[in-house]
Write a structure and sequence with these properties.
about 35% helix; 15 helices; globular; 27 strands; five-stranded mixed beta sheet; homodimer; alpha+beta; eleven-stranded mixed beta sheet
């Protein structure tokens, strides 16, 4: 297996293959027997759980409560919002029967033709329809609003080309669905939740993101406005990492959800929805990792510190154990997750490679000679630098180092993004630059037609109109028509 | 709405209706638009989250890691274990197509007949098959064992008669799936996890349970042995609350999962699986609640303490606020979840009824006069007793009261169970006693034939052979054949 660890393809040779291999070799996820569906392995799931935990607290702090809605949606519900069904109908898993039977001709177990559903059920690709159908009974008056609900769930979209975490038929996510008495309040909520996503990405994932608005063409099916956080991967491609939608009154109208306002008048309710998914795992992996394997931000690493003993005999091991045990206890007391790996059926070199592959942020190595000298070897995963530190006070040292690593990988990713973000003013330059990857800040005339032509010719899409885009007179790089601000173009995952 | 609260059917009048109404009125769950599928509302979900949190820590303490496996299972997988498919085929939701389309005849959105799957997919009713198909690639040697994995997931069984939480087509659960090198280790693990369930039920849910073994007839489809925890509801009916299965090598053989043992020989792997579900919510509600609404064990109550102010004007309210704020802060500091409800659009009487209905364990009521006297009115939900306590030290008082309530409702449920458990030695007495409800401890000849005849004649099933059943010579109440220990008969949910 040690040999296998080293066989990781290098990013420079084939970035895409490097990613696919890394996900599997680091025990994060694998393909299942069901087309397009993944198995999330324990190590990968432990990272996802940490993400869930942090996001869930942030949601709760903003007043959101969790609930659970059905997996299956009546086919007719999907059709009630015209754009929505257009967006999702082509990738729906459809339940048509509710029973199997033994084939009378002995061909094994077959679908029982007499157990056909009157109305087919769809596995939820997203839950706006079933949730707004439910909200109709929950909302009567302005006193019932705002309604701030989230669910953690699995969803299903029959994707033709899938990649672990980045695009799978089934994926795990959270979807928030809020209901409001006014348009402004709903719009503010959509932006508030986008900011929650932005904060989570930057503070926990160490993932710098651009917040912006999607063009009409890239909007969620049924939304009036889609807000997005966009990240840049190491190969310069963009990855949409979370979206928050202002849905206007579209779903309230489709499902007839009205409330009595303070003026005693009946009005349709205003809505938002917002979600992030296991796709974030893909962003996390691709942003920080290197040719030796994963690099995990300390705040999301299941194991933050690993300690490996070096010893020649049981006596030496006991000596090391005696020094390490109180360090482990103290680190745990500080809320740091530590693994002391003194298993004797693997050699230190194997352990080193394995924990590097798994992205453990800090490694301590300790032998009899270190103990005599009162020192310990510290390796930080982000830079792979080794350093000899004093044993005394090592816990504080490690704590500070974890913070430093968290900050460093964010800065590294930010610098990378900045170095690969270019203002471009001519079509020639655009076509040249897009081949090099990265974000292009360019003027656009605001039409879907131009957007689509640019995509056709260059595979670049408009990732977003940044929230903080300065007003600037300019000309569309493609049509030369007037434009008031630059938008971000990139190729994307 | 205050009026509506009082309309709760009394247990003595119609226990079943009382339960159905309570689940809805206390905002725990409701029927959805999809047959047999429920919506778990925020208050109900908050209780479920607390259960998940405690169970999840207990699993992790026993070395189990979480992972995630696909929602859909190829039809052919189900058939690989003969008993398993027999047990689940009749209640499977079947996915046959992966696309919708606009009907060419303008009938709206229809299933695209050209998008038919070659092999149908089943929504998991349980995941042994897909998981053991995955384990084949994870397990090569005894060094890969034991493998201790759990998943939190939704599952689907097309039940004909459903009731909120107790029996729904879709439900939430956890399913643990472990793999072992020896038969003994697997058997021990199955019992260890049963004990985890028993501890959780008794310590957190305040739910006394009998641990036992299921008869062959009541075993999980594919298991060699099924262990169970059985609880008694207030109407004397049994509720199976969690099961743990020793699967032998059945699934390893069906999916060809072998490992090289320490003697360098290839052997099939030994397995367990174990699960509890949102059905536990039903057990929780039915065990403790009364004609005024929910009674929640403090350890699982989303709100443990509610404080309601009494005031005539803003000045008085400010006075009360000034006293309550530090109490709230101190209680929160002690890890107690408090709600201070000083909303002025509801009257105290309405609040009292609402929090009673919602089962909040402790209520404090505080007005200007109390502040003068340095006292506060304390109401405990389990007995509805009111008591005037000193404001000074109220936080410790509340903490102790919460512990007392937790202990009291457990004792109450245990006494109820004991008062409704009877040793019965004749068939006449059996038939008489079963009409009165409760557990019957009786001798049984050990045959499925007798078990089924008893069920036919009395609707009583064997809930389990208790783990701690004493050896005792006796005669089967039905056939008079010899028996070595008593088993528990009851009617059940």
């Amino acid at each position: 297996m040690a040999k296998e660890l080293k066989n990781l393809t290098k990013r420079a040779d084939n970035y895409s293959q490097w990613y696919n291999e890394l996900v599997v070799k680091a025990d994060l996820a694998e393909q299942s027997a069901v087309r397009g569906c993944m198995v999330i392995k324990p190590y990968g799931y432990a990272i996802w759980e940490k993400m869930q935990h942090e996001l869930d607290s942030m949601f709760k702090q903003s007043g959101v409560q969790n609930a659970y809605f059905p997996l299956l949606i009546p086919k007719s519900f999907l059709s009630k919002e015209a754009d929505h069904v257009e967006g999702f109908a082509k990738e729906c898993a459809v339940v048509t029967h509710y029973r199997l039977m033994n084939d009378p001709n002995g061909k094994g177990v077959v679908v029982d033709p007499s157990a056909r559903l009157e109305e087919e059920l769809i596995i939820r690709p997203t839950s706006e329809t079933i949730i707004w159908n439910t909200y109709r009974n929950w909302i009567n008056s302005y006193r019932d609003l705002p309604l701030l609900v989230n669910q953690w769930a699995n969803v299903f979209r029959w994707e033709m080309r899938t990649r672990l975490f980045l695009r799978t038929a089934e994926f795990l996510w959270q979807e928030g669905h809020t209901a409001h008495a006014t348009k402004d309040e709903a719009q503010d909520k959509a932006i508030e939740m986008l900011n929650v996503y932005g904060d989570f990405a930057e503070k926990f994932m160490a993932l710098p993101v651009v917040k912006g608005v999607k063009t009409a063409n890239e909007r969620f099916a049924g939304a009036l406005e889609t807000y997005t956080i966009e990240a840049m991967m190491q190969d310069g491609k963009a990855l949409q990492s979370g979206t928050s939608h202002f849905l206007g009154q579209n779903f309230a109208k489709a499902f007839d959800v009205k409330f009595i306002n303070k003026e005693n008048q009946l009005e349709h309710v205003w809505a938002t929805s917002w979600g992030v998914s296991t796709r974030l795992m893909g962003a996390l992996i691709m942003t920080h990792s290197d040719d030796n394997g994963l690099v995990l931000p300390p705040k999301l690493a299941p194991i933050q510190v690993v300690i490996v003993p070096i010893y020649k005999n049981d006596e030496q091991l006991e000596q090391v154990n005696a020094v390490v045990d109180p360090i482990v206890a103290k680190l745990r007391g500080m809320g740091i997750s530590v693994k002391y790996d003194n298993a004797d059926n693997k050699r230190p070199g194997f352990k080193f490679a394995d924990y590097e592959l798994k992205g453990v942020p800090v490694r301590l190595v300790l032998g009899a000679r270190d103990i005599e000298a009162g020192t310990v070897e510290v390796m930080r995963r982000d830079t792979l630098e080794k350093h000899v530190a004093q044993l005394e006070g090592i816990e504080e040292y490690v704590k500070n180092l974890l913070d430093e690593i968290q900050a460093n990988i964010f800065t590294k990713a930010l610098n990378h993004r900045e170095s690969m973000t270019h203002k471009v003013d001519t079509w020639e330059e655009f076509k040249e630059q897009i081949e090099k990857g990265g974000f292009i800040l360019a003027h656009w005339d605001g039409t879907t037609e131009t957007e689509e032509k640019i995509k056709e010719e260059t595979k670049a899409t408009i990732r977003c109109i940044p929230m903080d885009a300065e007003e600037e007179e300019g000309k569309c790089i493609y049509t030369g028509k007037p434009s008031k601000r630059r938008v971000i173009f990139a190729r994307n995952y």
